[in-house]
Design goal:
alpha/beta
Length: 274
Amino acid sequence: MAWYPGATKMELQPESDGQAAIRPTQVILHSLAAPWTARRAYEFWRDSSSLESHFGLGFAGDLAQYIGTETRADANAAANRRPDGTGAVSIETASNLQHTDPWTGEQIEQLIRLGVWLHQRHGIPLRICRTHDEPGFGYHSLHPAWSVGGTACPGAARVKQFREVVFPGIVARATAQTSTPPEEDDMAAVDVWAYKNTTIETRDAYEILRSTNRTVQALAAQVAAQTAAIQALAAQLGDDVDTAAVVAAVQQAIRDAVITVDVDVTAAPAGAGR
């Protein structure tokens, strides 16, 4: 069995010992259609259902694991365990009764952390499952074989978050190569505190965001410098030249060619280019 150290262990018996082993190759996200804590979901699986998921996640980010990830859990229909012994890890998440609400920030953070661990622990590839049996990450309604009779779970809002926030976040943290902590002088005080009091995975995310921000700032400065140089060059072409048109044409050429242009107007002799 494999137990995630970031979750509270609430082991379901006899399922945990009695159900067949699996080799995890997929991660499937669900909505409970119930506003339950992780403990309440555990009590439901224990007392009121013959089904269960591997994990349960409350609105506040409370995360529990009910069955080891190398044991079958019965939340994914045909993906629970296949004839070759592979199967999916299921994560049930608290939602409103219609599972139409988005995941909370706390839920998203936990899903990203757990996704990184599942990738690292079980080698689940960082891709969205293109077929029902392809290894990777997905959500319950992604493939019909993952449900009995079809489902809208986890809901349109969460499908959008999965594709735009959760899965990209897992990939970003799992593939981050940064090792040098950020300088404190260019971070807000609250960011410094958060950086020092969070996990390595989250620190990697900080690094990615800060690196991206610095790149954007550098590109903006470069564009401003290029624009000034182009304007100075165009001004030397004569009164009969539409300076604004020249600037716009050169800028468009730069965008089309995806190149960097360095214009040195200080070295150009008077009348050059006429």
